[in-house]
Amino acid sequence: MKKGLMYKCLLFCFATVFFLINIHAGEITIQGVPCKGIYLSKSNASHRPYDDKAAKILQQYLQKATGKRIPINYVSFAKQKITPGMIILGQAAIKSGAADKKIFKNIKNGGFAISVKDNVVVVANLGRDNIISGVYALIEAVLSVEFLASSRKAVITEPEIKSGRDVMFKAMNLSRGPAFKFRFIRAGEAIGYSSYMLLGDATIIGAKYDNRCHTAEGLVNYEKYKDSHPEYFAMSANGKRLRKKADMRRFDVHFCTSNPNLKKIVTESVIKWMKADPKAKYFWLCQGDGGNKYCRCKKCMAMDIKPGIISDRWISFVNDVAAVIAHKCPGRKILTLAYVDLETPPIKVRPAKNVIPMYCPYPNNWSNHLAAFDDKEYNAVGIKTLKGWTNVTRNNLGIFCYPSSCPEPLTIWPSFYANYEKIIYYAKNNVIGMDFCGLFPYERGLSGHNSFNELQRYVLSKVLWNPSLDVEKKIDHFMKLYYGPGAKYMRSFFKLIHEQVKVDGRHYAQHTEQTKRGFVTDAFAKKAYAIFEKAEKATKGKKRYYNRILKEKLFLLYADLTDRCRSNRKISVAKMSLYAKHLAEFAKIAKMLKITYFGRDQTPAKWFMETAILKLNSGCWYNDPKIISLIKTPLDTLGATVPRCQEKIRDGGWRIPIKGLVGSVSLKSYNYKCPIKREVKLLRRKSSGQGYAMTYLFLEQTPSKPVSLNIEGLDNEKKLKARIEITVNGKVIYKKAVPFAKHDWKTHSFNIPAGILRKGKNKIEFKNITPDIVTQNEKKYVEFISMRRKNYKWGWFIISGISFKF
Fold first, then answer.
1. How far is 112 from 195, CA to CA, in rounded Å?
2. Which DSSP symbol is given to 713?
3. N or C: which end of the chain has fewer CB within 10 A?
4. Is the peptide bond before 364 cis (omega within 30 degrees of 0)?
């Protein structure tokens, strides 16, 4: 067949399919008049991307509902009259006069207004991205659906939108304005968050990520200047200029803010960036990540009004850049972090009008993210610094918040009410915007950050628009739509996990960077699993709701199987069958959801090994033969998986690699005030849930003489020594202060008497038995996060090597 004829045949086929689809397509009418299409104005570069996106979203959903694709038209309303059947969006609505400007008088922060009258649909906005929020609100109204959850690849509505229906726009007047000018969260436009297009795309200036806050690596080319101009970068306390760590993924080098050439380079970079990204309004200007890296050169130190408070020098630096920006790029805003060393507000310098400090309620001054205003204990210092910033920012403060667990996205994280209470406080204290560091949606191997992720994203968005709404009713509303017949049970579980934070005598506290064990107790687990049993029964046969309940159960299973696991001795022989069943269920659900990310420095294979002592091979974890076997026969599989990691050494003894030590905390390296040692195990005090480790030694025959157990390790750097208990096959061979040095790695030999080790499998256990409660006399040696006495940063020890000599 000739090419020309072939193309004609293909064209005919496509035309036929398009014709047949449209024959059966539903009708789109505006108060009875056929819809002509969506009309946009060829507006300027700062507005058009938003109008374009809004138009495509509306076109997509109308086509999804009716099967009919209406055209998008770009017109000049100086020539085009408004006629029945038009849908007019964004700048076109303003320029054509279709939107009455009076309606915007009472709308906060450039929200949106929708009107359907005289057979014309109008969606108008003043803020750039609010046209997108307006279009989603229009879709909800005209299709009688609600957007509940969103990710980069999918948006969930209830009910589902089914094709082939007619759509009619009825008379309508609707207007809304958000309480906060910007509300950033990943992939949240459909549920009311701001578009990330508002944030400057930092890849334009060479940064690794498009809209992340740490833009220093793009603003100043480190590789270009590190050798020729090291003076551009911060001087450390030892008088040397900071260097980027070769093994650091993040850019952690800070600037020398007193260097005029450095300031000029930063200013030129920001101007170039702003001109190259006209659609963006907000641009991040920040130091490298991390704390205690600020410049100690004489000129920078002279800029500090009070030693130790460096916010004045940094805000002064940013203000100088902002002054040039105000002239050359009017209307643009600079965002900068009030973070770690910069958390304390400036004493005299005030941010310029086009500078928005983004205050970070970050550990350690905010060491409880499960309770908002824990001002007597964990968050007292943080609350004080927050109030200081609200006093110095002229109602121009933003918040960079931490609503979820950064290192453990699969765990239970009962922070909803803490996040809600903070937003209410921010609204009352003239905070103008928020950026959520976390609450990532379900996508790309990630479960969604922590328990009730979709609920938090949905409800908190509604609060950001209307802080006075009845939040309990909004939670009930979401539960009913999202979980269907299982809603009342999921509401019970939601209540249960948040009650644990405030249980009398428990006061469970945790911050976003902290990995902490012990949330799941026997009593809690019994109640929680009973609730899920009822929820699963209520939704059986209703896959849409049933799978959502299983997804939420994943967080319970992970938290339980990590808190109470085989490797930390919290699972007795009598409980092993139920433990194996729960482990298999976790694997089954995680496999169904294709979860590949278990957490920071926590691969799936590592988690299964360190909690269940189940050794997986390389490759995709849920296709591993052990996992397939676990799902089919849980107890049999688990019973046959004791790993053999030992290696023979020259003198006839055995060495246990650190990877063969199960439990405790795995560190890739440790070198604080001591030589660096890689791949080590840290054991914290018992109540941390990270104070136990164990391994097995397999012998071909029973030793007839005592055996020497040689352990290389390090004690914590505080004055008092940690305590250790070593057990072999249930017999305690040592129970005293750790014999290791404070600032150097030393090996100590422990005697295993004859008759304890035997042929076959031998269990070796290590426990941190350092008391939790610090005496009055010991207080001066302890670095407290807060007034509470449980401080897991004290009383630890590290094991870096294990061998047996016969």
1. 14
2. E
3. N
4. yes
Give how far the C-alpha of residue 620 lies from the chain's centroid of Cα atoms, to the nearest Å: 23
- For residues 532 and 542, what is the distance between their CA atoms, to the nearest angstrom? 15
Going from the C-alpha of 380 to that of each of 345, 367, 621, 782, the distances in angstroms are 15, 9, 43, 19
Euclidean distance between CA atoms 355 and 324, whole angstroms: 12
Beta strand 172-176 with 746-752 is: unpaired
Single-letter code of the amino acid located at 589:
I
pTM here is 0.90
Distance CA 399, CA 434 (A): 5
Across the range 407-413, mean pLDDT stands at: 95
Between residues 785 and 182, the one the model is more confident about: 182
Q: Report helix angle 487-499 to 416-428, nearest 10.
A: 80
Q: What is the 3-state secondary structure (H, E, C) of 761-789?
A: EEEEEEEECCCCCCCHHHHHHCCCCCCCC
Angle at 98 between CA 97 and CA 102, to 5 degrees: 75
Q: Are 195 and 132 in contact (CB under 8 A)?
A: yes
Exposure letters 424-451 (e unless 16+ CB within 10 A, then b): ebbbeeebbbbbbbbbbbbeeebbbbbb
Instruction: Supply the pLDDT for residue 21.
Output: 46
pLDDT in tens, 191-227: 999 999 999 999 999 887 777 888 888 999 988 998 9
What single string gives the DSSP state of each residue in 187-243? T-GGGTPPPGGGB--GGGGT-SSSS-S--HHHHS-HHHHTTT-GGGB-B-TTSPBP-
**659 three-class SS:** helix
Helix (H) or strand (E) segment spanning residue 436: strand 431-436
pLDDT-derived band at 772 (thresholds 50, 70, 90) equals confident
At 262-282, the pLDDT tens digits run 999 999 999 999 999 999 999
Q: Confirm if 340 and 480 have CB atoms less than 8 A apart.
A: no
Per-residue pLDDT at 9: 55
* Nearest residue to 353 via CA among 385, 328, 318: 318
Residue 517 CB burial class (10 angstroms; 0-12, 13-18, ≥19) = buried
Rounded-to-integer distance, Cα 741 and Cα 746, Å:
6
213-227, 459-473, 528-542: range with lowest mean pLDDT = 213-227
* Cβ within 8 Å of residue 356, ≥6 positions away: 282, 333, 334, 335, 336, 396, 397, 398, 432, 433
Q: Hey, what are 94's tokens?
A: 């303003």
Listed residue (160, 116, 152, 153) closest to 134, CA to CA: 116
pLDDT of amino acid 76: 86
CA distance 256 to 233: 5
Q: How high is the pLDDT of residue 405?
A: 95
Residue 521 has pLDDT above 50, yes or no: yes
If you compute the radius of gyration of the chain from its CA atoms, what whole number of angstroms results?
30
Closest CA to 356 of 329, 342, 338: 338
Residue with tokens 């609350």: 383
Residues 183/226, Cβ–Cβ less than 8 Å: no
**Contact by Cβ (8 Å): 286, 215:** yes
Distance CA(507)–CA(452), nearest Å, equals: 21
Tokens of 360: 């970070």
Ramachandran bin of 218, using left for φ above 0, alpha for ψ from -120 to 50, beta for the remaining angles: alpha
pLDDT tens-digit map of 414-453: 999 999 999 999 999 999 999 999 899 988 788 889 999 9
Cα–Cα distance for residue pair 646/354, rounded to 1 Å: 62
Query: What token pair was written down for 604?
Result: 């799936």
3-state SS, residue 752: strand
